[in-house]
Amino acid sequence: MPERALPFRLALNAEASRTAPWSAEQDAILSDKGLAAARAVIGGWPGYRPTPLASLSGLSAAFGVRSIAYKDEASRFGLGSFKALGGAYAVARILAAADDPAAVTVTCATDGNHGRSVAWGAAMFGCRCVIFIHAAVSEGRKAAIAAFGADVRRTPGNYDDSVRVAAATAKANGWHVVSDTSYPGYMTVPKDVMQGYEVMASEAFDALPAPPTHIFLQAGVGGMAAAVAALAKRRWGPARPAIVLSEPEAAACWVASFEQGAPTPVTGDLDTIMAGLACGEVSLLAWSILKDHGDAAMALPDAAAARMMRRLAAPARGDPPLVAGESAVAGLAALEAAMTAPDAKAALGLGPASRILVFGTEGDTDPALYREIVGRDAAAVRAQAGG
Asked: Catalytic: 111?
């Protein structure tokens, strides 16, 4: 059985339906043609290979579901995160249209992983990069971005504040914003970021022995969740899996938005150990997709993420040890929480026949925090499997 229940909030999306069509508006955001283009470009980058899809039979038995497939992004391009697929791809698209890439400056706001991807892409393709981080981003994450030659600038306030600073500074200087969120007047580049994320989804779907019944997805601004949901809808149509979003209780903008039936920001310092999910406003592009094809959202306490990190590091019998960062485990933590609550379990259609897909979206991208939470570093965890 799952461990002792932790408190959570569940919001069902009354507007979502598995029979909802994939609209022309949505296909203009993410499409099979766009995915083919992204796969062709990303597949040609040095070091590209599909990340592993682990089968967690021990955890499945403990939770009372048929199977759990875990897409492990900890090894992605050596950056430790799925974000490598999005930001760097958007940089490549910008520079492909530039006369002189060296004269281009790209910029973004970040909680850590997205900025690292943009900085890596800028270094790989030969342009200047300025990254804005907010007050709560750790020094370790700042250093990881700066290692790629980016000019990293810390701003006051939370993530959403840093987004606004990055946009204003870029406008004043003629820089290109490479954001994984979208807002009025800024829609084109985030489509490329999300299209890069679909490469991860396509790898996972292609490797599954059978379609999942449920996909639990970290939300944040929603770009990754929308990308996975979009491909699931295009691939399986009305037979698509149930799509469940998961986010920190301190930054539960998707729970609020599904409750209100419209994009609804949450305010405050958004303080959570799940740094990559500390977002108070949904991406409008993601909303365009998830309003129809996202079935529910759950808000979880930080303790649920920390517990799941430790559980994956010291796995159930038969499961591989997994290095999963704070933002990587929100989907699994939501599954565990739902399986402890009969009403939530019933509302989401979970049971012994359920086939679950989750995305472990980062490894130990903040090694010091990972060691503090898990009690060991990543090398010690991997050594259990001889790796």
From this structure: yes
Residue 64 buriedness (CB in 10 A; 0-12 / 13-18 / 19+): middle
- DSSP designation for 249: G
Give me the catalytic one of 83, 142, 191, 233: 83
Q: DSSP class of residue 240?
A: P
Helix (H) or strand (E) holding 373: helix 367-374
Known catalytic residue at 83:
yes
Name the CATH topology of 9-81+190-383: Rossmann fold (3.40.50)
Q: What is the DSSP letter of 234?
A: H
According to DSSP, the β-strands at 105-110 and 128-133 are parallel
CATH of 87-179, one of 2.60.40.1180, 3.30.1490.20, 3.40.50.1100, 1.20.58.100: 3.40.50.1100
Catalytic residue among 111, 180, 292, 364: 111
- Whether the Cβ atoms of residue 48 and residue 162 lie closer than 8 Å to each other: no
CA–CA separation, 241 and 194 (whole Å): 20
| pLDDT digit string, tens, across residues 311-367 | 999 998 889 999 999 999 999 999 999 999 999 999 999 999 999 999 999 999 999
Nearest to 252 by CA among 226, 283, 229, 220: 220
Is residue 194 within 8 Å of 29, Cβ to Cβ?
A: yes
